[in-house]
Amino acid sequence: MGTKVMIPLCSDFGEKHGSICIFGTGDFGRSLGSKLMQNGYSVVFGSRHPGETSLLPRGAEVLSHAEAVQNCSIIIVAVQRDHYDFLKNLKEALEGKILVDVSNNLTINQYPDSNAEYLAQIVPRATVVKAFNTVSAWALQSGSLDASRQVFVCSNDSQAKQQIMDIIRAIGLTPQDKGSLGMAKEIEDYPLQLFPMWRLPMCTCAGLTVLVFLYCVIQDIIYNAEKNIDVSYLLMITIPNRIFPVVSLMLLALCYLPGAFAAIIQLYRGTKYSRFPNWLDRWMLCRKQLGLVALSYAFLHAIYTLVIPIRYSARHRTETFIINQVMLNKTRAFEKPLTWRSDTYLALGILGFFFYIVLGITSLPSVSNAVNWREFRFVQSKLGYLTLLLCTGHAMVFGWNRFLLLDRYRWYMPPVYTLSLVIPCVVLILKLVLIIPCIDTRITKIRQGWERSPSKKAETKLKTCSL
Ligand code: NAP
Known about the structure:
With 467 residues, the chain is α/β, with parallel strands linked by helices. It contains 18 helices and eight strands. The chain has an eight-stranded mixed sheet, sandwiched between helices. Helix 8 packs parallel to helix 16. The protein is elongated, with a radius of gyration of 31 Å. The chain starts with 18 loop residues before the first strand and ends with a helix. The structure holds NADP nicotinamide-adenine-dinucleotide phosphate. NADP nicotinamide-adenine-dinucleotide phosphate binds next to helix 1. The site of NADP nicotinamide-adenine-dinucleotide phosphate has 20 residues, from helix 1.
């Protein structure tokens, strides 16, 4: 980013580059200061300890707060909110200047108002801009800014906001205009959120994992223990290798179920211009994360499956079978239907896994940025359904007719693979219905902005409101 931005500031500190004042010589002030200096700005620090430059970037000047602001029109307040009181004594010196609030809180809703609005109250004649709070001092210093390149900016003064956005671009970051200062509270909450988009997928995955684990333990271990057969060793490989594919398939289906619900809602309402229920909105927003969690389980299933031939229990079973055959002088006939079944099951699994990986790769920002919107939709929707179809087929061929065999219903519980097929089958059936030409045409029309006749629309709205 070699562009130098000329800021219309007084320039005692530099003719060519703008001078920026930073209050506070702490971690953040120092890091931002050195980033600004690397990009051609002169920086003057306002501190309680003027003249102390030991930790500061070379060439930086440290003055008292009142002296530092004299020659700058932009002041970055890199001080915790609790210490803003010193600004009350600088009200006159700060009149007409731009104050950039970079502060964060320890918890969400720590204060009733945002820090930026509080700053604006303390210094009413200055223009407050909220910015930089989502960038860490460490990222500024180390240069590894990929995860925090976005800088959210808001202010009631669009000119001041523009000036700060120019500085942000000049130091290699990406400004995101979030509007007026009223948005500061939301911006201050961003760094406090812990994996917001991952919470629902992770909880769903954890919940399903626990349920399937308990189901398998009851069906395999406790059921056999009742008959004095100890198969507790299944806990290490067999049961996990049942949980991973079952949960992975369910999660993959859960990525496509909300899309089907959305289409049904749009068909029912006859418009795309009404909001989906909040739960559906939330669900749709975390589909990528759901898919990635599902992919990680599919990976684990593939790895666990690869180790099966080297397991002692598997080797023992094979060896015992061969020895028995030899002792009884028996030959096992080559069963073609069984070969077909086993090869089909494996082929569907391999292909499903391949498309699963393609889906995962295309959801990476670097890849999704390189494809256009239609290509992305093609991969995520068409290939996504193909993956779901292949994986569902893999599970069906694996189980084959076992759901018909009564001895598989231990304590009346169906085999776990049949449970894993419920959601995928529902999704695939819904999709089949939705692509029936007359329904598909109607959905396409609605998605292009067509609305059902106003009277019917009003009726539907009334019903929705009364709900
Ligand atoms: P810090 O290391 O504690 O530094 C804060 C600075 O504030 C001190 O070095 C001090 O500078 C000044 N200060 C302390 N008490 C003061 C008082 N009573 N009156 C006036 N000035 C006082 O904190 P920091 O990590 O740099 O964070 C500064 C601000 O940036 C905070 O609001 C924080 O939320 C925000 N922020 C930090 C990061 C980060 O990664 N650290 C990231 C985003 C935003 P002098 O000794 O020079 O006066």
